[in-house]
Design brief:
The protein is α+β, with helices and mostly antiparallel strands. Helix content is about 30%, strand content about 15%. Strands 1-2-3-4 form a four-stranded antiparallel sheet, with no helix packed on it. A three-stranded antiparallel sheet has the order 5-6-7. The longest helix has about 30 residues. The chain starts with a helix and ends in a 6-residue tail after the last strand.
Length: about 190
């Protein structure tokens, strides 16, 4: 009776399964990198330069922050509020509320985040910077981590990591008056 032969048959099957799992994980990472979304595990996927031409009909340039989130768009002749808003998946009304101009003019820099405009879930204000270059944000009643992250173009995981001192388990809702650190602020 040869017990050793059964063990050898299991190892190739395990190796095939391991290879399939690794191939699937690699495919997911490659898909995340090519789409520009966050890769699994929370690391920002790198796929675009800091300033790049906008795709999908817009000819201006889009400025992104260190997390590759669009922050500002430089308009060109023919751009409209509606076209820019559609490209960046928002309504023209929201986009206009972030900007003071009545119409879009060539060379105009369009704020895509409303960093300077209080918003639902992010009605507080920046009070300064810390020694690490992070913005210090004073939370107001009703602020949420998702609202703050969206307003400043920061992934939610990065906001949480920068504020571990405020996490108490469960859901994290910053209390009014709390100082929240915003990592990797947009560069003006």
């Amino acid at each position: 009776m040869n017990l050793d032969s059964g063990a050898h048959r299991v190892r190739p099957a395990a190796a095939v399964l391991l290879a399939a799992v690794l191939a699937a994980a690699l495919a997911i990472l490659l898909a995340a990198c090519s789409s520009g979304t966050d890769a699994p595990g929370g690391a920002p996927a790198v796929s675009a330069p800091a300033t790049s031409p906008a795709s999908g009909g817009l000819q201006g340039t889009t400025e992104v922050n260190g997390f590759l989130q669009p922050m500002r768009y430089t308009a060109v002749d023919g751009d409209t509020w509606e076209g820019i808003a559609a490209h960046f998946r928002m309504t023209p009304e929201i986009l206009k509320s972030f900007n003071e101009a009545e119409s879009v003019a060539a060379g105009e820099i369009i704020d895509l985040r409303g960093v300077d405009v209080p918003q639902l879930g992010a009605g507080g204000s920046v009070t300064g910077q810390d020694g690490q270059g992070r913005l210090l944000y004073r939370a107001s009643a009703g602020d949420t981590p998702a609202g703050i992250a969206s307003r400043y173009g920061v992934p939610l995981y990065a906001l949480r990591i920068a504020n571990l001192n405020l996490l108490t388990g469960g859901e994290w809702i910053p209390p009014a008056g709390a100082t929240v650190a915003i990592p990797n602020p947009p560069i003006d």
